[in-house]
Amino acid sequence: MSQTTAIRGPFLTFRADPFETDPMEAILHESDGLILIREGRIVTAGSWDDLHHQVPSSTAVTHYPDKLISAGMVDTHVHYPQLPIIASYGEQLLEWLEQYVFPAEARFGDLTYARAVARTFLKELLRVGTTTAAVYCTVHPQSVEAFFEESERLNTCMIAGKVLMDRNAPDNLRDTAQSGYDQSAALIERWHGRGRQLYAVTPRFAPTSTPEQLDLAGALLASHDDLFMQTHLLENHSENAWVRELFPDRASYLDVYDKAGLLRPRSILAHAVHAQEADFQRCHDTGCTIAHCPGSNQFLGSGSFPLFRALDPKRRVRTGIGSDIGAGPALSLLQVLSDAYKVAQGLGTKLHPAQGLWLATAGGAQALGLQDRIGTIAPGFHADLCVFDPAATPLGKIRNQTAESLSDVLFALTMLGDDRSIAATYVAGQRLHTRD
After folding, report:
1. Residue 401 in 3-state DSSP?
2. What angle, 0 to 180 degrees and rounded to 10, lies between the N-to-C axes of helices 333-346 and 353-360?
3. 404 half-sphere exposure, CB direction, 13 A CA radius
4. pLDDT tens digits, residue range 320-339?
5. Which of 22, 208, 311, 399 is the S-S candidate for 412 at Cβ 3.0 to 4.6 Å?
6. Per residue in 367-406, pLDDT tens?
7. Residue 90 neighbours by CB distance under 10 Å
8. Residue 134 · residue 76 · CB < 8 Å
């Protein structure tokens, strides 16, 4: 008989899209719930009173009476090799790459070093309640091997890929169009769909790839229907001007990727801060995803992404939330949601806490095309969970004493929460992080 895990406590999940209906009506909230897990998947979830008789007599129940259980969070854009340079001072995008990022990434030719950083990075993700992420490695194939090895050991569902860069980068960080293709193809064969590991074809951004490399990236993407693609788009004005110089025959920055065959469902475009209506329309038409990275955009002075324009129901674009470490100064998606709320306010819009939490869970899963397996607490889904503690900090405790509703609790959590607000994290039913 397979082992059953039983978790009791208040839980919430989404039964609808809070951008399409009353945000709080989109939430299913059990004030005293039970989640039963077997072989890494949720068997049943609902009221403790209704379901407690289904708990086998031999199964201990883990109880979180004063916490709030959620699906694990989903980070749609992050660079694991940049963890050692998080919070590096004072530059905008292109200068920041030259001064901090490229020297840091050059170290990942060393497999031992790559393994050490991958181990720390994944541990930190779990500490902040993130159970799935779309992750950039470096140009070195061994950086991908190190990352997937550690993710496979933890059984986390991760998306990652070797960065493709055959120009406008230091010699020790360049591949060629053909070597990038060959190395990526070998990594896809080895890792894509192996357990819970998924591969993303990863041209860094248009300026560091020749048209030939982008075309071969498109060929790689076309080789499997379920591959991912990740790159950067319209993050910074100087970057956009550079792309126009490098690709004078393309109608726009987005058109560079479009002509290479890189736009389709499961294609993740980070930032899109300066996207125009034609860009949003094309993203909608092709089914690709934008990763909104408000912390990073503020840190590098890139600008403010118009989230609600992207989500215009007339031509809605799939959108997730991203920490973008290391330009982002925090891995915690609670802290990123705090930034997202402030950016939205600055643009004259209001991000409801239920909408923010949806972007970080069920919406993030939908943005990645994984909504059938993660992001929701329901039978058949992988039991990737995080246990929030809204009163974890002194300020959180004070604020929760005056909270008058679940909406109040969630807003305070997304404004004041950080790594201390994650009491535990579960991956496929196994508790891999405990704060205490």
Report:
1. helix
2. 130
3. 0
4. 999 999 999 999 999 999 99
5. 399
6. 999 999 999 999 999 999 999 999 999 999 999 999 999 9
7. 9
8. yes
Find the helix packing angle between 394-401 and 406-416, rounded to 10°: 160
Rg value, the chain, Cα: 21
From CA 142, how far away is CA 132, in angstroms rounded? 21
Residue 3's pLDDT is 83
How remote is the C-alpha of 104 from its chain's centroid? 22
- Residue 232, beta-bridge partner list: 270
Q: What DSSP state is assigned to residue 260?
A: T
Closest Cα partner for 162 from 337, 30, 179? 179
Please report which residue ranges of 57-170 form alpha helices under DSSP H.
93-96, 102-105, 111-127, 141-154
Residue with the two structure tokens 């809070």: 18
Q: Which residues pair with 159 in a beta bridge?
A: 134, 198
Using alpha carbons only, what angle is made at residue 159 by residues 7 and 162, rounded to the nearest 5 degrees? 150
Distance, in Å, from the CA atom of 197 to the CA atom of 416, rounded to the nearest integer, reads 32
Q: Which two tokens stand for residue 434?
A: 């405990």
CA 327-87-419 angle, 5° bins? 90
Within 8 A by CB and 6+ apart from 146, the residues are 108, 111, 114, 115, 117, 118
